[in-house]
Amino acid sequence: MAEVKIGILGAGRIGKLHATNLVNAVPGAKVVAIADLFMNDEIIDWAKGLGIEKCTDNPDDIFKDSNIDAVFICSSTNTHADFIIKAAEAGQHIFCEKPIHTDLNKIEEAIAAVEKAKVKLQVGFVRRFDHNHKKVRDTVASGRLGAPHIVKVCSRDPEAPPMSYVKVSGGIFMDMMIHDFDMVRYLSGSEVTEVSTFGTCVIDPEFKKYDDVDTAIVMLKFENGAIGVIDNSRRAGYGYDQRTEVHCEKGCVQVSNDLNDTSMISTAEGVICEKPTWFFLERYNNAFIAESVDFVNAVQNDTDVPVGGIDGLMPVKIAMAAKKSLDEGRPVKISEIK
Amino acid sequence: MAEVKIGILGAGRIGKLHATNLVNAVPGAKVVAIADLFMNDEIIDWAKGLGIEKCTDNPDDIFKDSNIDAVFICSSTNTHADFIIKAAEAGQHIFCEKPIHTDLNKIEEAIAAVEKAKVKLQVGFVRRFDHNHKKVRDTVASGRLGAPHIVKVCSRDPEAPPMSYVKVSGGIFMDMMIHDFDMVRYLSGSEVTEVSTFGTCVIDPEFKKYDDVDTAIVMLKFENGAIGVIDNSRRAGYGYDQRTEVHCEKGCVQVSNDLNDTSMISTAEGVICEKPTWFFLERYNNAFIAESVDFVNAVQNDTDVPVGGIDGLMPVKIAMAAKKSLDEGRPVKISEIK
Amino acid sequence: MAEVKIGILGAGRIGKLHATNLVNAVPGAKVVAIADLFMNDEIIDWAKGLGIEKCTDNPDDIFKDSNIDAVFICSSTNTHADFIIKAAEAGQHIFCEKPIHTDLNKIEEAIAAVEKAKVKLQVGFVRRFDHNHKKVRDTVASGRLGAPHIVKVCSRDPEAPPMSYVKVSGGIFMDMMIHDFDMVRYLSGSEVTEVSTFGTCVIDPEFKKYDDVDTAIVMLKFENGAIGVIDNSRRAGYGYDQRTEVHCEKGCVQVSNDLNDTSMISTAEGVICEKPTWFFLERYNNAFIAESVDFVNAVQNDTDVPVGGIDGLMPVKIAMAAKKSLDEGRPVKISEIK
Amino acid sequence: MAEVKIGILGAGRIGKLHATNLVNAVPGAKVVAIADLFMNDEIIDWAKGLGIEKCTDNPDDIFKDSNIDAVFICSSTNTHADFIIKAAEAGQHIFCEKPIHTDLNKIEEAIAAVEKAKVKLQVGFVRRFDHNHKKVRDTVASGRLGAPHIVKVCSRDPEAPPMSYVKVSGGIFMDMMIHDFDMVRYLSGSEVTEVSTFGTCVIDPEFKKYDDVDTAIVMLKFENGAIGVIDNSRRAGYGYDQRTEVHCEKGCVQVSNDLNDTSMISTAEGVICEKPTWFFLERYNNAFIAESVDFVNAVQNDTDVPVGGIDGLMPVKIAMAAKKSLDEGRPVKISEIK
C-alpha cells in the first residue's frame, strides 16, 4: 500500500503530538510538511529531528503541495472550517481536531465541501479510541446486554484552565463537555433529542464573568428511548476522572479510570491506592495513536473513517442546546437548534 | 437505664423484620405487643417464638396500653399519619416507616401532633445507617474535602415489582426515589431547592398505564450551591445497585456496593467477580438494626433522634416536585410544592 | 425438631461469644447451663441476661445433667481432650474449640471415646464458614477449574499478642498457623504429606526466648500432587489480613479481605480506601454463627458434622511437622509425626 | 550530548524488540548495525525500514566497527559471555539479555573483562522497570514502612512453552524463576542466603523427561532477616500473572496485574472483569523502553547502570541453589554454590 504523505497545520501542543505519533507509531504515514503562522527556529529544529522536511508559515504551501495526500488540522478552532474547505478543494483527505467550528453554518459548509470533493474527513474525538470507553461501546453494540436504558458519563479535569483560556474557550459545553456529547452518542448508538442543564460556579466565581459555569450536569433523552446524564467539573484535584457507564436491559457495563500503578499500601493509617493518570495526554496517549492509525488506514484502503462529519456536527448542536437550557432554565430539544 | 417497651403496628415483612431485630439485636428494647388488622395463627406463633406476649387485630390496643413506651409503625402507608397522631396523643415515642404520608397536609398534621406531645418521631430512612453511605456523609461533614460540588446517587432495584404493587405504590418518585431524595439531603448537608426530571418506560410499557415510569433521572440544585443527580432503574438484573458519590472542593468520596464475597475467578474466558448483595434485606441488614439501636438510645437517654419529622417531610416534597417536573416538562422549584 | 439443650464449658471470650450466638442467632438451640472454674457475679449477671439458668464452677455439673444434649468446649486447651471424653461418656454431642490437644495421644484417645459413644464431635475451625474462603473451596470442589496446582494462604494478625500469652500459646504453628493448616486441607481437598519451614524473629526478639518465631513461611506438598505455601505474621498493623488462593489446571480462584466499607476517597494526596476488618471477631462474626447453626442442625437431624475428629487431628500433626522442620532445618514428612 | 551508536547482536524476537524501541522511543540512541548468524532478506528489509544501515551475519563486524559505542546482546544464551568479553575488549558498552550464562565461571570471566575494560554492563532484568514492581521497590526503599519482613512474588506464564524449548531452556529456575530471583533482591534490597524448593509436574508429565518441573515454590532467607516466597506456574491460562508484595514492619505494599481495560460487566450471571495483559510483550512493553532509556543515559552521562554485573551473577546462583534444593530435598545455602 502506498505511503500516505501528510501535512500538519498548526505546530502547537496537539499538532506536535500528532506529528510525533505519525512519525514514530503510525505505519504507512509520512509527515512531509508542517505549517504554523508563528513558525520559528524551535519548531524548525523539532521538525528536523523528526525528519519533517518542509516548514512554512503559510498554510497555502500545504494545500498547494500536490505531493501531500492528507492534512491534519491542528490550528486554532476558528480556522478549522476554512482549512477543511481548502484541503477538500485541493483533493486532500482531512483529519480535523474538534470542534469543526462553533457556528453551525460554517460546519455545514465544510461538510458540504468534503462531500463534494469526495475526500475523507475524520474528526478528532479521541476518546472513542480509548480501550476503556471502547469496551463499553463494543459491549453495548454487541447487543448482549439488550437495549440501553441509562447512559452515564463523568468527566472532570484535574485543574481549572487559566482565565485567559476560559475567556476564549467557548464555554464548558463547547470546550469540555463536547467530548462527552460525542461519547453519549458513541456509547448509546443513538441520537440525542433533548437536554436539560443545571450549572453552578463553585470552583471560581470568575467563570461567571465570562457567562460560564465551572460545574455542570446535563440530562439527555435519546431517540431510542434511553435517558442519560453527564457531569463535568473543571477541577477534580486528584487527576483526570473519566468514567462511563451504560445500564441496559440485561445488565450494566461500566469502566473506571486507568491508574498510575496498581499498588495498594496498607498501614495503620489506611490503605492508599494510586490516583488516576493526570490528564488527557497520559490517559489518551494510546488513543491518539489509534485514531491516527485508523485515519491512515482509511485513506490507504479507501474505507470509511470511524468518526465522520456528522459526528463533528451533532456534539456542537447538543452543546448549544445545553447552554440554551442553562440560560433559559428549561429543557431544550436538539431540533430547536438551527 | 429503663427498658423501652415497644408495640409494633403491622406484622408484614417490615414489621416482622423490626420485631426480630428489636428482640435479638437491640439492647434495652422489649417488644411487648404487636397489632395487625389481619392477625392470624401464623403471626401469633411467630410472635410467641420471639417472646412477644400480646397479639391483637386492633391498633388501639397498642395506643391504649399505658405499659407501652414506644411504637414502630410498619403498617400500610395510608395509616402512618393517623397512627403517629394517635401514638403522640398517647405519649408514646414513634418510629415510623417511610413515607409518613403522600399528602403534605397529613404529614404536617402528624408532625404538629408529635411536637405538641413532645414525643420523639424517627422516620425509617434506613440507608443513612449503612456503613458505606455513612462514610460518604461523615467524610463530607468532616469538612476535610471542602464544600460539596456534585452529589450523585445511583439506585437500582434487582427486579421490577409486580404491577399489582406498582398500581398502589405512589409511583417511582414517592416509592423508590424517595430514599435517594433523603440520601442527597443527608450527604450534602443542604436542602434541595429545585429539580428537573427525565423519565422513560423501557423495562415494561405497563408502567405507563399507571402514569409511572420505570427508569428516571432527576437533577437537583442545593441551597449551598452544589448540584446533583439521581438515577433510578426498577430492574438492574444483577442485584441491588446502591452507589453514592460526593465530589467536593478538594476531592471526591464514593462508595460502591457490598458484594456477596470478595472472590475473583480468573480463567481463559474472563475474570468473574461476585455480584452485589441481592436486595435491601441483604444490603441494609445491619442498617436496620442500627437505626433501631439509635431510636431506643434516643428514647432511653432523651436525646435527639437521628432522622426527625422534617426528614420525613422534605423527601415527599422533592418527590412531588420531581413528578411535576416529569409531567410538565420543566424544572420545578421545591417552593412551588405546597 | 426437638430443641437442642446446650451446656457451655468456659466463660471466657470465646465461650461468651458462642453462648450469645446460640441464644440470639441459632434456631433450635437452647443454652441451659454454663460452667467456669472461676465463676463469678459478673458472669452470672451476663448469663441471666441471656436467659441461661444454670451457672456453675464445676464442669461435672454439665456432664452429669441428663437434660443436656450437647456441650460447647470453650475452656483452656489442656482441658479439651478430657472434656471430650467426659461428654462422650455422658452421651452428649460435642462442639470443641481448636486445637483438641497438643499431644497426639490425647487427641486420638478423645476421638476414640467419641467413636465409641457414637456422639458427634465438631471442631471449631471457624474459617471454613467464612463466605470468602468457602467460595474458594466450593469453586475448587466443583471441579470447574480442574485439579488444584498451587494453594496459597496468607494470614496476619493485626497485633502481636502479649508475651504472657506467647509463653503458653504453643507457638506460632500450633496457635496461629493451625487455622491455615486446616484451611489448606479444606481448600485443596487433599492431605498434606510434607512441609518445609522458614521462620524469623523480626517483630520482637523476645519471641526467641520462648523458642518461637513471629514471622514464618511453610511450604506444603499434597497427596494429589499440588504444592502450597502459607505465610504468617504476628503483626500486620493494618488489620486482620486473611487471603486465600488456589491456582488450578484451568485458572485461579482467590479472595481478598472484607473491608470496613467500600469507600474510595480521592484527593491530590492520593486515593484512600478502607482497611480490612480489625480481627477475627469482626471478620468471622457470621462464620461463628454459621458453624453453630451447622452443628445444631447435625445434632437435630443426626447428620454428619462439617468438621470432624480427623480435621482436629491432622492440623496438629502438620503444626508439629512445621515446627520440626524449623528446628532441624529440613523438610519433614507428616508420616514422621507419631 | 553525543548520540550513542548501537550495534545489535541477534535479530530474533527480543533483538527486534530492542532495535525498534531504540529507533522509535529512546532519545539519543542510533542503531547503526545488526548482526545475526542467519541473516536473511526478511531481516534486511525490516532493518532498512527502521533505517539501520549495516546488516551482517558476522558478529565480529560489530565488535570491529570503531564507530559503534555500545552493543545490545540479544543472541542465544550460550553466546552472551563471549560476546560480552569481545565487546569489552573493543571498548564497547554492553546491554546483555539475561542470563549472562548458566556457568558461573563464564559469568565471572565476563564480569572481569568488563571491569578491566571499564565499560558499562547492564543486564536485561526488565521487570525492575515496570511501573508496578518499581512502586513496591520505591516504597520499601523509602523506609516509610520500616524493614521488610516477608517478600512475595507470584509469576505465572499464560501458556507452557513447547517441549522443544523446555529441552534447551535450562529449566524453570534458570529460565523463568530467574526473573523472580532478581525481583526479590530488587524488592528487599538484600541478598538471598538460603532457599528451599518444592516442585511438581501437574501441567504436563513431559517436563519430567527433561529433569524439570512445571510448577514450583521456592522459599528464601535474606541477609537482613526477612524471609520470602516465590511461586511459579508454566501455565496460568488467563494471562500473565505477575504480582509482588512486601510486608514490612509498619505495613504492606502490594501490586496486582495491569488489565486489558477497567471494565466491569454486571449481569444476572455474574460480574465480569478483564483479564491481565496476555504476556511479557504486553505487560512489560513500557519497561523494555525504560531500561533502554536508562542504559543510553548511563552511557551518555557516564553514570552507573541500574542493573549491573553482580545483578547478573546472583540470580544464576540462586537458581542453581533452588534446583539443588529440589534435587536433594533439603534447603540449600547460596554459599554452597560455587
Automatic annotation (TrEMBL), chains A, B, C, D:
Query: What GO MF annotations does this protein's record show?
Result: inositol 2-dehydrogenase (NAD+) activity; nucleotide binding
Q: Which InterPro entries match?
A: Gfo/Idh/MocA-like_OxRdtase_N, GFO_IDH_MocA-like_dom, Myo_inos_IolG, NAD(P)-bd_dom_sf
Q: Which UniProt keywords apply?
A: Oxidoreductase
- Which residue ranges does the record assign to the GFO/IDH/MocA-like oxidoreductase domain? 134-253
The protein's Enzyme Commission number: 1.1.1.18
Tree of life domain: Bacteria
User: Locate the Gfo/Idh/MocA-like oxidoreductase N-terminal domain: which residues?
Assistant: 4-125
Q: Which family does it belong to?
A: Belongs to the Gfo/Idh/MocA family.
What this protein is called in its record is Inositol 2-dehydrogenase
